[in-house]
Design brief:
Helix content is 40%, strand content 17%. It is α/β, with parallel strands linked by helices and 462 residues long. Helix 10 links the parallel strand 6 and strand 7. It is elongated.
């Protein structure tokens, strides 16, 4: 606040000075000073005497005329300078009287935070988007933007040929202060790797501030992926006390063997965006599995592998996995209870695999269940009965109330009988979305409609 007061005091002094200049002009002191000097008639040679003058008289007249021209040009230049100062004083008065210039920098900082893109966690450092564009409007906005660390905590670094990338990173993270950082590194070199290694070394020095890291490879030629696995392992071998989220995208097929418990003690979220990355090797070997609260993977798992993940990650709150097959081996002897699991998404599955998977689960805290069937299978003519989901609800009710509110079924055939069983059998169900060939029921209104129609029929004794 003291800095703002000093700034306003400085502007007030400038404005006072400009007013003094303006009042001086109104008192005609400037008009007295500024005058065009015209030569007297005695200095100008007459026409009828011109041819009879001597050479010295002609030279003296030329010198006098040039002197007068220079003096007039100096006066004109001084007058233009005074006019520019007066216009600046008027503009300053308009600024000081405008309400927008009386808004404190703290208010601008809060407004600028809402200007950041919301569709992605990571920000592209482009001059035409926030936060860089906010610092290019005027001096006040630049001061507010550069003094707001929350604007500079996230960045997408594209290592694709920019040789001055480290300079941008140093400026960006210096403005972020000491706040935790979210970094997305996109590897796709088109020039010497020396420049990219220089930028990665600087990123290594900030490992104690990492909060979220995503590693990916740009879509392009295969040779662009060369050199990144070793650099990725070195990156994840740093001590990362604040790391909360790790995202591995396509192109990274190496095992994260250096990501040990002491390197990432606060890791909670693991996202594997490539279907070739088996979550078993991450959960069983490198990561402290019990501390994970969110896991996402597209690797096709067997039911036994999915059970193993649930046993190793007992504290999961959100899970997205792909359960594609059910081998003919001995099932688990006891029911697997996931006390904290609230959101479960099962992709690329089938009706029989889904029933076998639900048969050995107990999910008392489940709020949302998303089921997506295999896109290439027709599943025959038999629809999904949903009986195992009802048994799952009854097992969970023995511990506490079943809290399932959202159920989405995509690709599985559901008949009318099964829909009524689930709608009336799960009283907490609010949203029930079904998408299948020839059937699309979305939203919550139709669920209440079915329940109300059934109550009306029961009240009439039908």
């Amino acid at each position: 606040m003291s800095a703002n007061i000093m700034q306003l005091e400085k502007k007030r002094r400038e404005f006072t000075l400009m007013e003094l200049v303006e009042s001086t002009a109104k008192n005609k002191i400037i008009h007295k000073r500024f005058r065009i000097v015209l030569p007297a008639s005695s200095y100008l040679p007459s026409t009828h005497k011109y041819y009879g003058t001597s050479k010295c008289s002609s030279q003296a007249s030329n010198v006098t005329a040039k002197t007068l021209m220079l003096e007039n040009e100096r006066q004109i230049h001084w007058a233009k300078k005074i006019r520019a100062n007066l216009r600046a004083a008027l503009r300053l008065r308009v600024k000081l009287e405008s309400p927008v210039y009386r808004v404190p920098l703290e208010i601008w900082s809060h407004i600028f935070i809402f200007c950041l893109p919301t569709e992605d966690e990571y920000i592209d450092p482009t001059p035409s988007a926030a936060p860089l564009v906010l610092s290019r409007v005027n001096g006040m906005w630049r001061a507010a933007a550069t003094q707001t660390p929350a604007l500079w905590t996230s960045i997408r670094i594209r290592l694709q040929g920019q040789v001055h990338r480290r300079t941008l990173l140093e400026m960006w993270f210096a403005r972020a202060g000491d706040l935790p950082l979210s970094i997305h590194i996109v590897w796709g070199p088109t020039q010497s790797l020396h420049f990219h290694d220089n930028a990665l070394e600087y990123i290594h020095s900030l490992a104690h501030r990492w909060r979220r890291i995503r590693l990916s490879v740009s879509k392009g030629l295969v040779w662009q992926k060369h050199g990144f696995p070793s650099r990725g392992r070195r990156l994840l071998a740093q001590h990362m006390p604040r790391l909360d989220t790790l995202e591995l995208e396509a192109g990274l097929s190496f095992g994260v063997t250096n990501l040990l418990r002491e390197n990432a003690p606060g890791l909670r979220v693991l996202t594997l965006m490539n279907e070739s990355l088996n979550p078993m090797q991450f959960v069983s070997n490198s990561l402290p599995s019990t501390q994970l609260t969110q896991l996402s993977s597209g690797f096709p798992l067997e039911i036994t592998q999915a059970f193993a993940i649930f046993k190793n990650c007992a504290n999961l709150a959100r899970c997205e996995i792909c359960v594609a097959s059910c081998p003919a081996i001995a099932p688990p002897r006891v029911t697997i209870r996931m006390a904290s699991l609230q959101t479960l998404t099962i992709n690329e599955t089938s009706a029989d695999v889904l029933d076998a998977f639900f048969h050995f689960l107990e999910l008392p805290a489940l709020h949302e269940l998303n089921i997506k069937a295999e896109t290439w299978s027709l599943y025959g003519s038999a629809p999904w009965t949903g009986s195992e989901l009802m048994f799952l609800m009854h097992r969970s009710l023995e511990v506490q109330d079943f809290k399932l509110k959202t159920l989405r079924v995509m690709g599985l055939r559901c008949d009318e009988k099964m829909i009524k069983v689930l709608v009336f059998g799960i009283p907490s169900l609010v949203v029930f979305d079904i998408r299948h060939r020839g059937m699309e029921l979305l939203g919550r209104y139709w669920v209440e409609l079915v329940r109300n129609s059934q109550r009306t029929m029961m009240s009439k004794g039908v």
